[in-house]
Amino acid sequence: MVNNLLFQAGEVVSVSRSAAHSFSKETLDVITLLAGLGVEGDAHMGKAVKHRSRVAQNPDQPNLRQVHLIHSELFDELHDAGFNVGPGQLGENITTRGIHLLELPTGTKLYIGNTAAIEITGLRNPCAQIDNFQSGLLNAVLDHDEDGNLIRKAGIMAIVLTGGEVAPRDPIRVELPPEPFRKLERV
């Protein structure tokens, strides 16, 4: 499947941020990515980890979760299953369309808009808070492949390589890392 991703491009559907450690984030007209830090004004911005459970384990570990992306196709799937979920509501900073985010390998670079560049670090590991948002949603964002392996569908995480403004309708260009590709793991 990765070969089909070589010429993949997409676009930004929505951008969001929250200064508080809230589950959902406010959708905005534009966000600013800061190199090595994340989304300006977002609670998860910083060189060291900001996710509460990870801070409790080791506050000095690097922040591999500076930017959270979700493909809007997931919202379509969830809507078909009876859920009402829109951009920013699952805590993502960038909602995309047209890119198979979950199939990209670790280290993939995404060039967004005119200047921003991010590098994919891994998968978001959805937690029980999702069920507090809408009952049954956690099971809807988890699946299993034909071998019984867990599939996490709640988005991917990235670090910011080059800062810049990101807004809806910005193009996204995919650059795969050198082979051999490493499958995304939770971060």
From TrEMBL:
Species per Swiss-Prot/TrEMBL record: Paenibacillus cremeus
Domain annotation MOSC: ranges: 26-175
Molecular function terms from GO: catalytic activity; molybdenum ion binding; pyridoxal phosphate binding
Taxonomy, superkingdom: Bacteria
Name this polypeptide is given: MOSC domain-containing protein
PROSITE patterns in UniProt: MOSC
Lineage: Bacteria, Bacillati, Bacillota, Bacilli, Bacillales
Record-linked PANTHER family: METAL-SULFUR CLUSTER BIOSYNTHESIS PROTEINS YUAD-RELATED, MOSC DOMAIN-CONTAINING PROTEIN
A Pfam family reported for this protein in Swiss-Prot or TrEMBL: MOSC
